[in-house]
Known about the structure:
Elements: E1 12-13, H1 14-20, H2 26-34, E2 38-40, E3 43-44, E4 50-51, E5 57-59, E6 62-64, E7 74-79, E8 109-111, E9 119-125, H3 128-135, E10 143-150, H4 155-163, E11 165-167, E12 170-172, E13 176-181, E14 187-193, H5 200-206, E15 211-220, E16 223-224, E17 234-236, H6 239-246
Parallel strand pairs: 9-15
Antiparallel strand pairs: 1-4, 2-3, 2-5, 5-6, 7-9, 7-17, 8-9, 10-14, 10-15, 11-12, 13-14, 15-16
Helix pairs in contact: 1-2
Amino acid sequence: MPTERKHPPAGERLHKVLAQVGLGSRRQIEDWIRAGRVHVNDQPAVLGQSVTGADRITVDGQPVTLAAPAKTRLLIYHKPEGEVCTRHDPQGRPTVFDRLPPLPTGRWISVGRLDINSSGLLLLTTDGALANRLMHPSNHLQREYAVRVNGDVDAAMLERLRAGVELEDGPARFVIITDGGGEGRNHWYNVTVDEGRNRLVRRLWASQGIVVSRLLRVRFGPLQLPRALGRGQYREATAAELASVSVRPATPSRPVRSSSGLKPTRRRG
């Protein structure tokens, strides 16, 4: 739990205050409030509740001393296949958090997820408000992936994926699809989506009867997967990189061509 800090301004929303001290994203904390894990002055918290520095707040029975947020940190991590993005895995599988540097206060918050069979760019931050902004559907931040597919892909199929198909949780599409080269079972495409629904890239291809055999995220918003960053390695974002994701976009992002220069068929493994 966070250690002692300065009191926040009066009347801030509870979920915002707890996100600022690094407990989780605003969405996660709202779920905790619904589940009864958060109490204010010994009473169950409610969604939308405001708090001041005089209020006593606990999460899972542990006191939280409120504060102005510490300096925001952002890690750029190259997730390998075989790691999960949960903090504690019941099956004992390795998690992305196992490799991260320890924090004196707060904790690392994953900006979205990659499934256990996917690899590539994963962002982690100490700022719950930043994590929430990057993941919020209204911002339409683009995610770009290099995917290797099994199956016969034709022009009509690609046009359907660009135009949009109906999935079990609503319509979805690829904003951009470009051919990445290769033949047979080693054919690659670079695809871009502007939302973060669970396993969206795999499900879009599956809607056309195509199986994704490898999936690598190469871009999240303006941030690229660094070519020199090996699997399982991370580095701190530069001041410019942090600034590029810290300002809320005025309008949804437009399709952009990748400047990563990554050649998926030439990556290790």
